[in-house]
């Protein structure tokens, strides 16, 4: 009579532990890449607002009369989410740029799950980014260094 060949319980446990470790590492890497894509969305939207702000400044030689709608920020589906609103289609909400002399700072704040702002019952992913911004000087045309992101 021959013995049946099979895996022992110890061998199966070792395989399950290895698979669990690899799964955990894969999930962490996946979360980081998702977060990078969300920040890229915010930087892209800030770039769009920057172009509209620059166009407004060129046409009016001033920026203090700009409205949110002039910069593509608002409540309708074709505009970026306004500061008071977190849209379920976006991970950030965008602010009307703040004017400081000829410089303008455009910023985006993180929205939590289900389109709820962070700090108002919304939760975001672990290690996420709360704020992204860029400063532009219209007088010189110079930008501050790349957009800055604040990590939690």
How would you explain this protein's 3D organization?
This protein has one helix and eight strands. The chain is of the alpha+beta class and 152 residues long.
Instruction: Give the SSE string.
Output: HEEEEEEEE
Number of strands: 8
Mean of all residue-level pLDDT scores: 76
Q: Helix/strand/pairing class, anyone?
A: alpha+beta
Quick overview of this protein structure:
This protein is of the alpha+beta class. The chain has one helix spanning 9-60; strands at residues 73-74, 80-81, 92-94, 98-100, 103-110, 129-137, 142-143, 148-151. It has one domain (10-151).
List the main descriptive attributes of the protein structure presented here:
152 residues, alpha+beta, two-stranded parallel sheet, 1 helix, 34% helix
Q: Mind sketching the topology for me?
A:
Blueprint lengths: L8 H52 L12 E2 L5 E2 L10 E3 L3 E3 L2 E8 L18 E9 L4 E2 L4 E4 L1
